[in-house]
Amino acid sequence: MVTGTQALFAGFMALLIAERLLELVLSKRNAARAFARGGVETGQGHYRFMVVFHTLFLVACVAEVFGLQRPFWGAWSWAALTGAVVAQGLRYWAIGTLGDRWNSRIIVVPGLAPVTGGPYRFLRHPNYVAVVLELLCVPLIHGAWVTAVVFTVGNAALLYVRIRAEEAALGAMYSEAFAHRPRFIPEVRRG
Contact at 8 Å (CB) between 131 and 155? Predict the structure, then answer.
């Protein structure tokens, strides 16, 4: 029997899946624009793995909650939901700031200066901060702690490869623009 909180979790997951499908459409459109402006793609090898990884994440969330009958943890679950919503806000702030330069692939248009506004004023990789937060919080909305642990650890390995490839592709202009910005945790400056 499906509980009320499980039904709400299923609805949340359906919205998350729809969001991902819309992001793929947006990414494909933006990729075509980047290629039309001379964009060069790198990181294709790990990209395929990343797509499979994130798809399995969505499946694992649902499978653990319903297959293992994970409980709703009250205040902890509400905190996880809050974290997941904050992650979505940060993701869309980053996507909105990048505009048609946002892409789920690594495509660099030569000669374009790096985007340094929006959340990029504070962090080099705000979208990846959102992904880390999401992979931790979404499963914990309904007690799927195994999924949270496995995919958070797996994502750390994936981001290690992804960020190195992305920063190498963006080159010297990016390195100079972001030399004093932290990668993941905003710096609190005094005075």
Answer: yes
